[in-house]
Fold these 3 entries.
Entry 1:
Amino acid sequence: MLPHERSLVKRLEKEPFALLGINSDGPADKVRKLLAENEITWRQAIDGSTSGPLATRWNVQGWPTIYVVDAQGVIRYRDVREEAMDKAVDTLLAELKAAKK
Amino acid sequence: MNQILRRAAGLVLAGACALAAAAAQTPAPAPQRPAPQRPTAQERLDALVERMEKATSSFWEVEWAKEMSDEERMALYAKRPGMEFVPEFEALAVEAKGSDVAAAARLQAFSLLCGFQKRTEAGTTLEKLLDESIESKELEDLPSMMQGYMGMAGQERVTNSLELLLEKSPHDKVKASTLLTLGQILCGRNASETQMAEGRKYFEWLITEFPTVKARKGTYKEVAENFLFALDNLQVGKQAPDFEVTDENGTKFKLSDYRGKVVVIDFWGMW
């Protein structure tokens, strides 16, 4: 998971794209340490635990849970991983580019 | 012994002959030593659970944590502890038949059998549990265990049992937990529209009839509301509900700050 996400973030660093981690490991200092140790460069929301406020509100029942949202803020894919995540993101980026023309 | 001697000496000292005579007629009762008492069923259940937890945690924390090849790990997994406790829980359930202890013991057995994918034995244990203990207050966790059992037994079997439990249980906690699970099952992935509509009814029933029943965290009502929120909002094609969170550097941000970008939201953790 992490190696794939690292390469995705790297590949799309100049594109209108963001990977947001909603982290359930604990307080910010603990998470900062994990980020450094694992070369995680993308932004995190500190949700505190698996029963953190956002995980609870979004009714997350399993980890990881993934949503892919388009440039208008509409949920377009759920629980896509690895290649499927690449494909989903590339499709939405292409859509965005086409709309801008 | 010492005490007996001392008490005897006291008698003699206090001791008119009359007393001595009376003592001779009715021999002083032997000092009461607490007879070694057989532990109660509840105590034995607690001890058994503790023994099981010790065995499990030492396995996962010690054995499992060792370096090994994938094959060795498979072999080790096959030997994970748990099943050896099933007969003990079952024996306790038989002995304490009809009590809450029996229900709790059988629930443990059922949980183990589900964990070890023992379909037939789990089915038998569930039958006995529902036959003998359906009115026990110990069954609050049964519905969530049934979700694990569903993979082996199928949805219909599970929903039938849950509907029976809902009808027969006199306890609000059990009823609320059952309604929640019924809603979750019916609104699960790949549910048809009819099933979804039926599942919603269970959630709504729970919210209106049992609004204050406490769950592990918060109330069952809140859990049901979060499910409904997810059903209504967190679907492909729906506008993602906005949220405000704090990042690793203490800066607040919103999902809507990212409008104009493609965003992957990844709920994750390393634990």
Entry 2:
Amino acid sequence: MIMRKEEIRRHTVAVLVDNEAGVLARVIGLFSGRGYNIESLTVAEVDPGERLSRITIVTSGTPMVIEQIKAQLGRLVPVHKVRDLTVDGPSVSREMALVKVAGGGEKRVESLRIADIFRARVVDSTNESFVFEIVGATEKLDAFIKLMQPLGLIDVSRTGVVAISRGAEGI
Amino acid sequence: MAQEKLSGSEIILKALVDQGVDVIFGYPGGAVLPLYDEIFKQNRIRHILVRHEQAALHAAEGYARSTGKVGAVLVTSGPGATNAVTGLTDALMDSIPLVCFTGQVPTHLIGNDAFQEADTTGITRPCTKHNYLVKDVADLARVVHEAFYVARSGRPGPVVIDLPKDVLINEAAYISPAKIKHKSYKPQVKGDIKQIEKAVEMIAQAKKPIFYCGGGVINSGPAASTLLTQFAHTTGFPVTLTLMGLGAFPASDKQFLGMLGMHGTFEANWAMHDCDLMICVGARFDDRVTGRTNAFAPHSKKIHIDIDPSSVNKNVAVDLAIIGDVAHVLEDMIKVWKSKQYKPHDKALKEWWRQIELWRARDCLRYDRTSKLIKPQYAIERLYEQTKNRDTYITTEVGQHQMWAAQLYKFEKPNRWMTSGGLGTMGYGLPAAMGVQLAHPDSLVVDISGESSVQMNIQEMATICQYRLPVKVFILNNSYMGMVRQWQELLYEKRYAESYMGAHPDFVKLADAYGAKGLRCDAVADVDAAIREMIETDGPVILDMRVDPEENCFPMIPSGAAHNDMLLGSTDEGQKPISEEGMVLV
């Protein structure tokens, strides 16, 4: 039985699919065709032997909509497994961002100081710029990027969320 | 020992034979010429040359629906594939198993905007159950076998295989279907026994129950209809069917309340509204069935049996869901009912039936039998009377005639009724009738149609005549797009914007032009004789039945209204104006 409460909640869904041409288009087409949200989406091959890819989708909706999303994903032919990491048990999720900041003087020093607090690493540096690598929860990345804004933020590239369940069980 | 190598075209034909295909509907073109050459060289698979690719899809749908087998289609690249899109969408919406082969430009030209190139897998991704682009002939045999498996398994649907021309020519070893096992697609067939036990307990306790059954019963095979009838008789519960489900339960049975939904019967819709337990079997709570969902069967518990988990809780939240094939689940339900020695709630059911009989007494399908004009309902009643004792299959187009046929033609068996339900495709019926006739050469096949719909694929008269298919085209000619006109009358103050066609062909001459027989009837007294002549004519016939141009199809639940807000006839009009929300709905 699903809950009939109508509140909208964010869910992280992991989908194991055959790594074949068009599979990502099927998933994205399903979301756009049926009017579901995608807040972030990541995909990469995770089992080269079996040619399986794992897609992590962050979406939001009422419980009825989330059930529908999972059922619709499940009926795509190349989909092996669908897991809702938000409700199926505890999970960890991470996102990475590369953040480019340019400028000199006090702002340059300040950006380094904040990067240190957030445990961001410098992966590229010139006399007038840094590229920081930061890993963590989405909210941590949001906070870091916000702080960089007045310090000469030039460019942001984010991976989107990847997530996995806690404990010994696989997907 | 190395296995003998075959060309891609030879592999496809061998695979089709192994999949039990005997007829393929198609239209040739440059990209599929190697495959056509192979078809020319063999005689195990019969190719039917249609006049438009859309018709090939509908013909295959008619073939599939009337036989329970997978329909096969072959079209060329580019326009061949894009013309197939309507038929593919139709088959997807109505869960009809098809495999459609599309030609494609050679692999080295894909993406170059080559002549007759289209991104077929891109275009058909949302209108197929699955699709494939075969880039290596070594994959071809596996893909064809997988496609047939996917098309017919679980909730059936159309599958496209896109074939670059070089793949049809290159050679590889053949793989037989027995060696193919799908990696990921394994639909659940048996229902969860705990859920089934709970459901049967709810059924035993019900006081005002109803079986609401749909196309899933038909797709599950004839055994499902037999089991449904058996369980309905054991429990004594009333049964209503969706448009797609007609024939799943005998229409002449006392327990049958008729079709439900927008143009369903008064008794079916009221029983749905007032029930305390709804047992939904292979139906999907479509908006044409539910009306306004927040007023849909407000006092009921709902059980939903469906093979597709995404059908559950999509439009209406249910209390108990059983995922599985209808026949398997019904079989288990009957077993549980017997082993636990349940008895239906006789006293409550007697009261429920008393109420239902009061609704039934409203005689909601009545019409003016004194009219000097031919009433379309009368024409269908007479058609039914003259064909009921024959081996008859009915197809329809889309519109008023379709709803009258659904209301008034009584189907006793499954697979006898072919109509475009989900997509509502005008032009479906004529090519579908062609497909049905090919599968059942000695049966009577009638396309109940309207003069507007039939013209959307009228070119198929040439196919029908070429293959000497004795299809009967029964046109209820009211000179309007009748359902559009009806909505304009009821909702747009009779502003008949573009629903009247100022010119129609002379259907008698048109039949003659194609080489079929044409008949016309415009007097009530001649209806029986005209129908008799149509049936008794050896060969294809178009019967142009001139019916009352302004007759409306009732009962009708206006868009956005609840089941108990239905209009019964013209005297009801205007009492309950359509809400603004309702106007937005289709």
Entry 3:
Amino acid sequence: MRLSSFPICFKEITKPHKFCPGCGHGIVLKELGFAVDELDIINDTLLGVDIGCSLLAWDFFNIATIQTHHGRTIPIVSGYKSAQNKKICIAYVGDGGAYAIGLQALITASLRNDPITIIVVNNTLYGMTGGQMAPTTLCNELTTTTPNGKICEGIKPILGPELLKNTSSEKAFIARATISRPLEVGEMIKKALLNQIVNNSFSFVEILSICPTNWKKDAKESFEFLEKYMEKYFTVGVINESKNS
Amino acid sequence: MIGGQLSNKILYNGSEAAIKGCLQAGATFFAGYPITPGTEIMEQWVKKTSENQKYRFIQAEDETSAGFNVIGAILAGKKAFTATAGPGNTLMQDPISMAEAMRLPFVAIIMQRGGPSTGTVIFSQQEVNLTCHGGNGEGHRIVYSTSTPQELYNYCLKAFDIAWKWRFPTFILADGYQAKQESQVVFKKYIPRINSKPILKYNHGNNNLRNCYNFETELALNLEKNIRDYNLMSKKVCEYELYKASDASEIIITHGITSLSVIEAIDILRTKFNKKIGLFRPITLAPFPIEVGNKVISNKTNIYIAESSNGQLASLVKSNLNIRSTIVELLKPAVPISAEDIINLVRK
């Protein structure tokens, strides 16, 4: 049960947050905050954030936080975890940071079964730089680098969790959630953190989110795109879970 | 036991000597990616991790990640380092730029390779610019250019204290000749002067760290401080070697292992050809030993600059020192310089 309307680990002086009005990051970070509160790990958690919109979370929490270069959050968090293996280490990145510039680091962390939790916020484009095509951009989707719609012709937008299922340990927790159902986002994040703590294993959650600014959609249209198109292509749910969980 | 044995003498190669220095300096974490001629350092480290669990190791997917792994461990309070070479040094500039901007005590051993480094694994002095000035920052780095396995040990030992004291990335710049040659090395008793502490704090203020700025003016303020600190530090960390320079009328400036050829040449030039010639060797290429350098070169008839690159040291020398004498350059990119090369140059 949630006792407060905001997570206790929120850093109040940095609120309201710096994301665009209507951005999905606020919902994801709030759920992450509740998960940290509920597990009572505020003083044992390391949060790494990427470049891109996720960097705006660098002072979001009263949690030890490091912001780094694009795609490099995962290696920093892996290095930190290796040096301080009692800490609960989280990498918070966008879909460009995870699946383009940082994909090599992401797959390697899964191949080594690094006991870290990776949260990828997927809004199908590069938000901070003004809405360019990402590996997650849907077929026919308009972005500034696909002005006539992304041409797929036999290729598919990347399915990150499904890809990682093939490179991860059986003990890995891999899932996808959507901000259209925020409580499920919180549950998935909590499971991912518990998998790191209890099973000492790789944990990964992709969260489908919205970008009204770059999608050039209002709130209603944004959620329509999320539910009609994104959730149809990107299957929501647990994709891999340890039998011991 | 590391080191080979010849009669009753124990010989160490440069990589073994370097690791000895890092261990004595208190290093407990290494992340890296295999690349000749730096790989042996990683393999020596892995041996230590199997002996004692306090030593941690990550084999990264590339040098960029290796550098960021090291940064993660530094934030967690470990004396962490890496070793790389050539194209690995190129990839490493991303994490090094972060370490430089955030004043993280990042230590790296660089075994130089001539570009583009597909092949050519043994010797080069072509990573001076990259190591001193790489990345999108101001080159606030400390770079020791060593010449022997003994110096590899000495400066690996020193680098961690220097990096943790001044909080600038610190490099040991060497090459495959130094890494692979075996020689006797004198090891010292050494207690690290500075203990590492977690840089990212828990449960109290300043626990959110970033490497981004909202405004250029905000970055400028940060850089002003870094520039001030770097300048304040410069005189204190500068190191150099002088050889028969006090009565010399001509000076040869070189760095790294090339100084061994120069010293051999100086002895021959003095005894056989009656040349009053000496050596000025900056050991710290960054910060450059300007004060001593200017003193040594004043009133000399000729200044020679010898290096195995097309003028990377020469441009450092010219931009840092006030040279009024004639400059004669011996630039041999990609290949080593022998004593004979130096003698021929001076006798021309």
